[in-house]
Design goal:
The structure holds two protein chains of two kinds. By secondary structure, chain A is of the alpha+beta class. Helices cover 33% and strands 16% of the residues of chain A. Chain A is globular. The mean pLDDT of chain A is 97. Chain B has three domains: 31-136 and 197-249 and 254-287, Alpha-Beta Complex (Aldehyde Oxidoreductase, domain 3), CATH 3.90.1170.50; 291-464 and 630-783, Aldehyde oxidase/xanthine dehydrogenase, molybdopterin binding domain (Aldehyde Oxidoreductase, domain 4); 480-626, Aldehyde oxidase/xanthine dehydrogenase, molybdopterin binding domain (Aldehyde Oxidoreductase, domain 4). In chain B, strands 3-5-1-12-9-10-11 form a seven-stranded mixed β-sheet. In chain B, strand 16 and strand 17 form a beta hairpin. In chain B, helix 10 packs across helix 11 and helix 18 (668-687) crosses helix 19 (740-757). Chain B is globular. The chains are: A alpha+beta, B alpha+beta. At the A-B interface, helix 1, helix 2, helix 3, helix 4 and helix 5 of A face helix 1 and helix 18 of B.
């Protein structure tokens, strides 16, 4: 028995038939072809699948596609506007906040939420703020620098 | 090196696609008619497989086929080959079937595969495959598995001992007899789970018409994967194309050629459609290799003044249930030969027993063998210092190999290339302000607080390596590299390399080399890697060899381009090729720098060949191979400062200072990033990470909920500095930096914790140093 879901993804209206058990992350990746959202675990620990739903960072492997009915979803593909990187994307690039890049989309979208709630975070607040996102490459140091840099740029 | 591009921390050229979600990892690929594979895995660590009933699974919605190991065998698929068999050690290589046929030997061992229309249906049907197991006794501990009465995994491997390897230098028994003091420890270098953020995946497309197979896979070394796939699938090497697209971290865990790569080829052949398999994280914990897992009995002999005279060790290295690709080389060649560390230790002997157990196969994990060696040396130096009531820095200084530029031979037979160990130590001490730190420690102790200062002065072997040595030590391949530099008519450049970076940034650093050497803009260079049909042969990215060896091949090709460009320029300027010089992107007549052609001028003329030297081949493209004459030995000094809460056992990492020397630095930003990540993983081993099996062989740390991966809040800001001692082993003087942080930080942090607890009488704790373990150690020390 399939269900109809209607939602806005990166500004575009989408209506689709989905199985009730379909995870949102698989809906985004496999039905919409938005493969920028990655799956790194199956226990909601790693945060690689983080997207923004109605303004909040959500792990899309923890949510069913049917639960996202009526929501407004932003994935990493929807962050850059008019060919220009979002300041957080730019800061991750400038500060070498990524290596293999697999955790990066989730890390960036978590930062979007973090800086919205706390535009001027301290280093400790950043480190705690990205607690739900794991990175195995960077030792987090340059991710923290990237978030700090993004905070400065977004305030300006 | 006229250009300032070399040595500058330019931003990575990889990043725009990665920060926008445009990068394509293996699981992102979708092919027409593609179907999904799921693997049925054993819940038992050791069992006879009596019967596999696939009927129910085969009738489920969307299911296309269910296949067993017997069917795969009948289709002509052979066992997974081990590609590093250490010679002279009576090494046993029992068969490693991709899918178990009659016996399963670890939890996660494949017993069947299901192919279905989507991944959910494949998973459902995999759960419906009914396997009748007859459980057998289990052994998980590398020492216990060798003891009398332990269950045997493989019929032809008595006592589960796969090999007994040893290294001997000098006369260690005589050294111990002459020693004033001997210190001992039993070190558990615990099993770790690599946890690259991208789980493994493989997508195979077999063409029955051409007999060709294309496989997208999460590998660090596509050419090795192709070679080994040709051995077990029977598809000839020239008909296999391996593509490593974006790869989300590896840390060694994506070196091996895995059973699932053979399975997707088999399945694609069987159902005549492209087949994709993607690992779940819980599958990754059981089916992707683990690292380390040594039990080490170590003794260090010294004179009263702290001069080390000998080191003796006996190691039981857990190999897991089967031999993964590089498994026997890691606890031997990459471990035992490094036991001299940065010290003059004239007499060394180590016995290593490689042992089969009912656990996930163990292979390379960042550092691979060297962390297990460095921990021994750096821990024992501290134990000796404690015993002699000397400062650990003084014991290190006393025994350190003095600075050298032309090679230094250690007792194990290795010839270190270049080193200045006192240089890095002095710099680290200065940054740490060592004197003040010790004073602060004393002040805090007076207040009942526990500050600890820990050291690691290391050298490591990387830049693997001379191919003759590879052959001599049983590595089943070469270790040279190759590169092609191709100039297009417009002056833009493609570089094709055999190495396969997956986060290390060589698309940027290699472009920097080309830009610096040939006077083109970095943006005019595109570096291609990771596709056996598009790149020349190479042995892959591991052992911190990509830059150290790959850049040698690149420089060879660049030199050929320069030589040819001089001939073309000479023709155009009506001069003799010997009279042409090169600087800053210009080929000019010696003494007349205003008469010149740019590399772009040359590229255009070489490609169109309208006005061209007689007899010279057109085109501006060069290919080169580089086989290094030696390994490289980067080194450094790391200092960890911790505070331990004696009430709770909690360890807080307060400062971390790393001074490293990787020779010439191409891009300092990338080098620092590699060091940061390495430190985090090594600290992870010291304080939090550890795979735990129960006596039944069940993996208790089987998910990210149970295995403590480091998070951002666990770390202070690392304090980094460099010294620069170029190597003579490759044209650019560069050494590897991918693994140093991991090698150094585990002993540095461990030593710091024990230093903090010294006044409480705590002398050792098994890693990871979790609050519970630290608290118990404090309690036990108080009791005794």
């Amino acid at each position: 028995m399939k269900h109809t879901v209607s939602l806005t993804v990166n500004g575009a209206k989408q209506t689709a038939e989905v199985e009730p058990r379909l995870l949102l992350v698989h809906f985004l990746r496999e039905q919409l072809g938005l493969t920028g959202t990655n799956v790194g675990c199956d226990t909601s620990q790693c945060g690689a699948c983080t997207v923004i739903i109605d303004g909040q960072a959500v792990k899309s492997c923890t949510m069913l596609a049917v639960q996202a009915d009526g929501s407004d979803v932003t994935t990493i593909e929807g962050l850059a506007r008019d060919g220009k990187l979002h300041p957080i994307q730019q800061a991750f690039w400038d500060k070498h906040g990524l290596q293999c890049g697999f955790c990066t989309p989730g890390m960036i979208l978590t930062t979007v939420d973090l800086l919205k709630r706390n535009p001027r975070p301290t280093e400790a607040e950043i480190r705690h703020g990205i607690d739900g996102n794991l990175c195995r490459c960077t030792g987090y140091q340059n991710i923290v620098s990237a978030v700090q840099e993004a905070a400065i740029r977004m305030k300006a | 090196m006229a250009s300032r591009i070399f040595g500058s921390g330019i931003k990575r050229r990889e990043d725009p696609r990665l920060v926008t979600g445009q990068a394509r990892y293996t699981d992102d690929f979708v092919l027409p008619n593609m179907v999904h594979m799921a693997v049925v895995r054993s819940p038992y660590a050791h069992a006879k497989v009596k019967r596999i009933d696939t009927k129910k699974a085969a009738s489920m919605p969307g299911v296309i086929g269910v296949f067993t190991g017997q069917q795969m065998k009948d289709a002509g698929f052979g066992p997974i080959p081990c590609a590093w068999v250490v010679p002279g050690s009576d090494t046993k290589t029992p068969p490693y079937p991709a899918i178990a046929v009659d016996t399963v030997r670890y939890v996660g061992n494949a017993v069947a595969v299901v192919v279905a229309m989507d991944r959910y249906q494949a998973r459902d049907a995999a759960d419906a495959v009914d396997v009748d197991y007859d459980p057998l006794p289990v052994t998980v501990d590398a020492f216990k598995a060798t003891q009398k009465g332990a269950p045997r995994l493989h019929a032809d491997v008595p006592d589960n001992i796969c090999f007994h390897w040893h290294v001997t230098g000098g006369d260690v028994d005589a050294a111990f007899k002459s020693a004033d003091v001997v210190v001992k420890d039993r070190i558990i270098n615990q099993r770790l789970i690599p946890n690259a953020m991208e789980p493994r995946a493989a997508l195979a497309q077999y063409s029955s018409a051409s007999g060709e197979v294309t496989i997208w896979t999460t590998t660090q070394n596509p050419h090795i994967a192709r070679f080994l796939l040709s051995l077990d699938t029977g598809v000839p090497e020239h008909k296999i194309r391996v593509i490593a697209p974006e790869v989300g971290g590896g840390f060694g865990s994506k070196i091996p050629h895995y059973p699932e790569e053979a399975m997707v080829v088999f399945a694609s052949k069987a159902v005549n459609r492209p087949v994709k398999w993607t690992e779940s994280r819980s599958e990754n914990y059981r089916a992707t290799i683990h690292g380390r897992d040594h039990i080490q009995e170590v003794e260090l002999a010294a004179k009263k003044d702290g001069t080390i005279v000998g080191l003796r060790a006996k190691v039981w290295a857990n190999l897991g249930a089967y031999l993964s690709t590089a498994s026997t080389g890691i606890p031997t060649i990459l471990h035992g030969l490094m036991l001299s560390g940065v010290y003059k230790i004239p007499n060394i002997h180590e016995d290593v027993y490689g042992v089969f157990t009912n656990t996930t196969p163990v292979d390379a994990y960042r550092g691979a063998g060297r962390p297990e060696a460095t921990f021994i040396v750096e821990r024992m130096v501290d134990v000796l210092a404690h015993k002699l009531k000397m400062d650990p820095v003084e014991v290190r200084r006393k025994n350190m190999i003095p600075p050298f530029k032309d090679g230094y031979t250690v007792a194990t037979g290795l010839v270190y290339d270049t080193g200045n160990y006192e240089g890095v130590l002095n710099k680290a001490l200065q940054i740490a302000d060592y004197k003040s730190l010790r004073k602060r420690q004393a002040d805090m102790r007076a207040k009942g607080k526990h500050l600890g200062i820990g050291f690691c002065t290391y050298a490591e072997i990387c830049g693997l390596g001379p191919s003759q040595v590879a052959g001599a030590v049983g590595f089943g391949g070469g270790l040279w590299e190759s590169a092609i530099v191709r100039f297009h008519p417009s002056g833009k450049v493609n570089v094709m390399v055999g190495v396969s970076p997956h986060g290390q940034g060589e698309e940027t650093t290699f472009a920097q080399i080309v830009a610096s050497e040939l006077g083109v803009s970095v943006d005019d260079v595109e570096v291609l890697h990771g596709d056996t049909d598009q790149t020349p042969m190479g042995w892959g990215t591991y052992g911190s060899r990509t830059t150290a060896v790959g850049s040698g091949a690149l420089m060879g090709a660049i030199t050929k381009i320069k030589d040819k460009s001089k001939i073309v320029t000479a023709h155009l300027l009506e001069a003799s090729p010997e009279d042409i010089d090169y600087a800053d992107g210009k080929f000019f007549v010696k003494g007349s720098p205003d008469k010149f052609k740019t590399i772009q001028d040359v590229a255009l003329m070489a490609n169109v060949a309208w006005n061209y030297p007689k007899g010279l081949e057109p085109g501006l493209e060069a290919s080169a191979f580089f086989d290094p004459p030696n390994f490289v030995y980067p080194f450094g000094a790391h200092i960890a400062v911790v505070e331990v809460d004696a009430e709770t056992g909690e360890v807080k990492l307060e400062r971390y200072i790393a001074v490293d020397d990787c020779g010439k630095v191409i891009n300092p930003m990338i080098v620092e990033g590699q060091i940061h990540g390495g430190i985090a993983q090594g600290v992870g081993q010291a304080l939090w990470e550890g795979a735990v099996y129960d006596d039944d062989g069940q993996l208790l740390t089987g998910s990210m909920m149970d295995y403590a991966l480091p998070k951002a809040a666990y770390f202070p800001k690392f304090e980094l500095a460099m010294t620069e001692t170029p190597t003579t082993v490759n044209p650019l003087g560069v050494k590897g930096i991918g693994e140093t942080g991991t090698i150094a930080s585990t002993p540095a942090v461990y030593n710091a914790v024990i230093d903090a607890l010294a006044p409480l009488g705590v002398e050792r704790i098994n890693m990871p140093l979790t609050p519970e373990r630290v608290w118990r150690a404090i309690r036990d020390a108080k009791r005794s």
